[in-house]
Amino acid sequence: METIFSEKHRLRNSKTELFGGELVEPFERPSRAEYIIDRVRAVNLGPVSEPDDFGMDPILAIHDKGFIDFLLTAWTDWQAEGFKGEAMPTVWPARRMSTHIPNHIEGRLGYYALACETTISDGTWEAAYAAAQVALTGAERVSAGAPAAFALCRPPGHHAAIDMYGGYCFVNNAAVAAQHLLDKGAKRIAVLDVDFHHGNGTQDIFDARDDVLFVSLHGDPMDAFPHFLGHADETGTGKGESFTINYPLPPNTDFATWRAALAKALVHIKDYAPDALIVSLGVDTFETDPISFFKLQSEDFSTYGADIAGLGLPTLFVMEGGYDIEEIGINTVNVLQGFEQ
Ligand code: SP5
Ligand code: ZN
């Protein structure tokens, strides 16, 4: 399987994350991608290629223009205020407040953020842009007939909604790739999100659409980030009704329980008969992930990779989360090798 990878991921190198009331070194850090690409090379998974540049249009096909303009200038605008730390919101348009978009950067941060653990700093936009190009290049390969490709995106994307960033995500790489496949002639795309966290951004983007099926297995939002989306009763709206399917799972879910939910998800995907599958691949379901509560073991990732391959669909894997950094390369590549066996 070909891997698409850009060294520009390193430009996303924020120094702080708000965690437990303290500013800590971010869980989503550059070494994540280094461990994964090292493992890809160590097992000879296949060629590693640089992304092509598809420009801004495919990003603007998914995201609100005002939101992207905000991301482009947020760090400069923040610095212009003379603040010493990295950019983070401190105020939100909460219940019954105005939704006018403020002028001041502190107001705009609150308007466009869905969470404040994720800071914006130097290079954030450049890395997020490169990650989207990685996903687009992977989609291009699958569109051209590759049975599978791995878009090693960093920063991740599945929490980024039409006009919101957060959860370490800025541009929704999987959604940008899905739209690209549709634009290239696919009629239906399925997105299977196996990251520990609910893919609220992807769900938001395709909520009212029937040309993208969104299926997610994740920690129950009653107990896990992003807390405010991902319940089983969210099934899509309007034309998109029944094209969103959520499997929230409780703390300490083991592989047997997780795999049973995956089996149900795969039946829905098969029935939908998509032209291609996008897997939002987060390996934060691992038993020792520092911020998650599922109990998958390394060999389980190989097993479920093979389960996904059973669909027989052209498949683009798009990297999302995973924070047990020492094991992230093994677990990620186990899925890809399990798929190829
Ligand atoms: C892409 C992705 O995986 N994003 C995840 C963002 C999660 N950020 C908030 C984490 C809050 C974790 N609280 C964990 C408590 C652990 N005891
Ligand atoms: Zn996650």
Automatic annotation (TrEMBL):
What this protein needs as a cofactor is: Zn(2+)
Q: What GO MF annotations does this protein's record show?
A: histone deacetylase activity; hydrolase activity; metal ion binding
InterPro entries referenced in this protein's UniProt entry, alphabetically = HDACs, His_deacetylse_dom, His_deacetylse_dom_sf, Ureohydrolase_dom_sf
Indicate whether Metal-binding appears among the record's keywords.
yes
Q: Which residues form the signal peptide?
A: none
- One short Pfam family name for this protein? Hist_deacetyl
Q: Which UniProt keywords apply?
A: Hydrolase, Metal-binding, Zinc
Question: In its UniProt record, which GO terms are filed under biological process?
Answer: epigenetic regulation of gene expression
Annotated Histone deacetylase domain ranges read: 28-333
- Tell me the PANTHER family matching this sequence: HISTONE DEACETYLASE 8, HISTONE DEACETYLASE HDAC1-RELATED
Family to which this protein belongs: Belongs to the histone deacetylase family.
- Name this protein carries in UniProt: Acetylpolyamine aminohydrolase
| Source organism phylogeny | Bacteria, Pseudomonadati, Pseudomonadota, Alphaproteobacteria, Rhodobacterales
